[in-house]
Amino acid sequence: MRVIKLVLFLVLVLAAVLAYNTAQLQRKKTAPSAAALAPVDEAAAAQRLAGAVQIPTISYSDRSAIDLTRLEALADYLQIQFPRLHATLQREVVNEHSLLYTWPGRDLAAPPLLFLAHLDVVPIEPGSEGLWTHAPFSGDIADGYVWGRGTIDDKASVLAWQEALEILVASGFQPQRTLYFAFGHDEEIGGEQGAAKIAALLKERGVKAEFALDEGGVITNGVFPGISRPVASIMAAEKGYASFRLTARASGGHSSMPPRTTAVGAVARAVARLQEQPMPARLAPPTTDMLDRLAPEMPLLLKVAVANRWLFAPLLIHELGKAPVSDALLRTTTAPTMLRAGIKDNVLPSEASAVVNFRLLPGDTLAAVEHHIRDVVADPQIEIAHEGEAGNEASPVSDTRSAAFALLERSVNEVFPNAVVSSGIVIGTTDLRNYNGVFERRYNFVPTPLTPEDLPRIHGSNERIAIADYANIVRFYVRLLQNLNS
Ligand SMILES: [Zn+2]
Question: 120 an active-site residue?
Fold first, then answer.
């Protein structure tokens, strides 16, 4: 009897906790204000995007292979297609091929805003041309889509900004605060000649934007398991990047009399150790912000686990760690990517090496990663050195409770009333990493709706954007700038 009472009591307590948590998590769903969205001539806008796609501004790691005249052609094209904005905003060509537009605000004392996009695209993987339904630089308009390289990454954003500015200038809009639009020309190969030069120029001028916005977050449909609504991910940080080379040296010789461990064996063991012992996982902002914002949409059990992280963090980490895409949100990832050794099957190599790529979670420094490698490899025979550039620290983590985030959220709600606004971390890299010191906060978001089926199109084959979706990016940019004035 006593036991039954105790069980009943516990059930009641649990039910109360569940009810409380559920109530806590029910966000007030404010109806989107009936803001008038900008009228966009969708067919004409699609044509202008298609025209930009037809100019193949391809970046190659080997910079000597880049045809810079195409960047000039794209810059000329923008001037011709968007005459009003070019008559109103100040336009500067930075380091010959990047573009910086300034629209001075009425209130010069107020902090400015900085919006980024990039002019270059990635090459078409040789041999994959035949996989494209429409030729990669055709800019074909068919079946309600604009097709071609850059329609998602990132010419849609460059052109949508130009469309939005053209609409606003035509409507007599004047910004309250100064707006900068920075279009780098080599994002796909690191942004050293584009974004980094624009950032240096802005720094020199003492520009400190209240926030900067770049690509990196999208609106996903059906990507988060168990969540049926579209998710607009306004990213609040970006992971860092570093590669290390592990090298073992040995005296060569004939493979008939090998030592116990050859150079190949030593490197293989070091790589295996690093894979078996990744850097520790943890739940931290902005991933925790992402979970909090998505929780109301999750099945009940997950909802309770997220709301009671103090208790369930280990379980959440265990669950999220199962898939590479969510594991990447929890830790600095370890990815062995290159191996080099040997010239012949019966010759002991005098040197063997491996390259391991790390993507740093905010809070893990480059020095900490190097320390981790030495600790885990624990082999004096292995030399450890940076491969290529010294790498990038992870970005600062921006506040998702800020007025800036609220402004972005409101603009999303107005144009995409069905979407849940969430946050998160960019696991790749963007031009924004070159702008540290030029902004107070940084966010990554272009409202391109993508399904799981669309994700491989980015940097892959059959990149395309729906004409209606493209028009909504334009509407979003218009609303964002209008909301900045209110
Ligand atoms: Zn991009």
Answer: yes
